[in-house]
Amino acid sequence: MSDKLLEVKDLRTSFFTHLGEVKAIRGISFDVEKGESIGIVGESGSGKSVTSLSIMKLLLYPGKIVGGEILFNGEDLVNKTNKDMMAIRGNEIAMIFQDPMTSLNPVYTIGDQIAEAIMKHQKLSRKEAHERALEMLKLVNIPDPEKRIHNFPHEFSGGMRQRAMIAIALSCQPQLLIADEPTTALDVTIQAQILDLMKSLNAKLDTSTMLITHDLGVVADVCSRVVVMYGGLIMEKGSIRDIYYEPRHPYTMGLLKSIPKVASDEKQRLIPIPGTPPDLLNPPTGCPFYARCEYAMRICNTQQPPYFKSEDGKHESMCWLLHPDAPKNEKYELLKGGVKIGK
Fold this sequence. Notes:
Blueprint: E1 4-17, E2 20-33, E3 37-41, H1 48-56, E4 63-72, E5 75-76, H2 82-88, E6 93-96, H3 100-103, H4 110-122, H5 126-139, H6 145-148, H7 158-170, E7 176-180, H8 188-205, E8 208-213, H9 216-219, E9 225-230, E10 233-239, H10 240-245, H11 250-257, H12 298-302, E11 308-309, E12 316-317, H13 330-336
Parallel strand pairs: 3-8, 3-9, 6-7, 7-8
Antiparallel strand pairs: 1-2, 1-4, 4-5, 9-10, 10-12, 11-12
Helix pairs in contact: 4-5, 4-7, 5-7, 7-8
């Protein structure tokens, strides 16, 4: 029996606008194993959130999945009807959205909103659902849960609202939790608490997690594998160690160099990636990072590179510099051995 809970195969998603087809996802493949946490990382517009919305089949018009498969427990979600997906969403696959204030209904108590999800999917009575809601608030470490269960969203702090969203998402014990920028707009202390909570709940409940973020620093202590996206494609994927200490794609290297470093005595300046992301209304024929890459070669502009794999096949990178016949670049070879990201 396969350990793969989710398999995304050659997924392509587009938005059909009056200007033309915006190819937001251009053929990506990855998987999530049972009980595993993976990170989906990239700049705004790279396709991270569209990937999650495609999996949940929550794309709004004019968005549409135009190709590929999304296998969940071996069943293709692409072919599921909206009625089928309503039974899966919240029950088997749950999602935490970026802004808990807009995701929570301001006129219902936190307890009622958790209980609603439980009653809908678990077929429990209102009393049983509220008892379960109280258990969930305790599980996500909400202080004084017996009192807080009767509070409205505006009575919660930002961090507590995010905990409430996690409680709602996990209330039906889903097999897969998708967290889309769950620490956005939270201060660093609360961010750390939310990430620690997600990590502990993943271990306790054996729920698989997809953590979507623009910050590679966020996934380091939560995920076991990382998928790096850019321009609607996967640039690189591998284990935490592969991505942090042996990055092979110049885009991944650029993301790592832009992470604030912890250093005791030296002052260090963040190094931004120059340029702007590609126009996916007219996507480039070659590598989407070509225009911003300091190591770019002529072939990078005309031909999309294949994935070059490590010996064990678990570390994949889409870059012509990894071709056996590519000219050696001393600076690239040095960074390929690992980008120092601080102590």
